[in-house]
Amino acid sequence: MNGKILMNFALTICFFCCCSSGRVIESPHYNVIHVEAEFEIRQYKQVSWISALVQGTASFEKSTQQGFHRLYQYIHGANINSSHFLITSPVTTTIMASTHGPERLVRYYLPSMYTENPPLPNSELNVQFEKWRSNCLAVRRFSGFAKDDNINKEVEALKSSLNKYLPKSSAISEYTVAQYNSSRHLSGRLNEVWLDVSAVTSEGCQRR
Ligand SMILES: *[C@@H]1O[C@H](CO)[C@@H](O)[C@H](O)[C@H]1NC(C)=O
Ligand SMILES: *[C@@H]1O[C@H](CO)[C@@H](O)[C@H](O)[C@H]1NC(C)=O
């Protein structure tokens, strides 16, 4: 078990090392709708992801490694076309509001050339193609490494600063951690916590 986790970790490092030098890394496009000192509201449109559901592991770090390991294989040829994909960012982990044990959804952002018809994944990877139509996200940035022992604090801080602006958002329990940088970067790291506030904002992501 430890060996497997170590290997996943090594793969993660390798993934970022070999691919994050020089080239421009694609990220999903969004519009900033509202800005405050501690958070912003963004509208994302038509974002395509490949996602891996991880069940039974409460740890954010472990479930991210497990899910990312499956996504890593998909983008490195374990698909019907044996296609290799460009690296994108961020890698996101959604901590889902489930009543039957922990569920985490790890996502890789599909580069623009694959947004419509990504090659089918090898079935044993159990990864899914997912397309967002339009989403309104409340976003808080934080630096350092995203870890089990700091992500709760960050999402609680986002909720409390959001509370005045969108009081109804306090009922939202599902949240996402977005990691933008390779693990070899020890400083200058960017992470975000996202709360999907689509249900409590109007169509243009404005306050209702
Ligand atoms: C996969 O391969 C098929 C047949 O070679 C081709 O028609 C299709 O466009 C490819 N799909 C992708 C996403 O590259
Ligand atoms: C981390 O990622 C962000 C967003 O892509 C980028 O602006 C920043 O320069 C990166 N940091 C390092 C140390 O590469």
UniProtKB/TrEMBL annotation:
The keyword Transcription regulation does not apply. This is Heme-binding protein 2-like. It holds the Pfam family SOUL. Keywords: Signal. InterPro entries: Reg_factor_effector_dom_sf, SOUL_heme-bd. Belongs to the HEBP family. Residues 1-22 form the signal peptide.
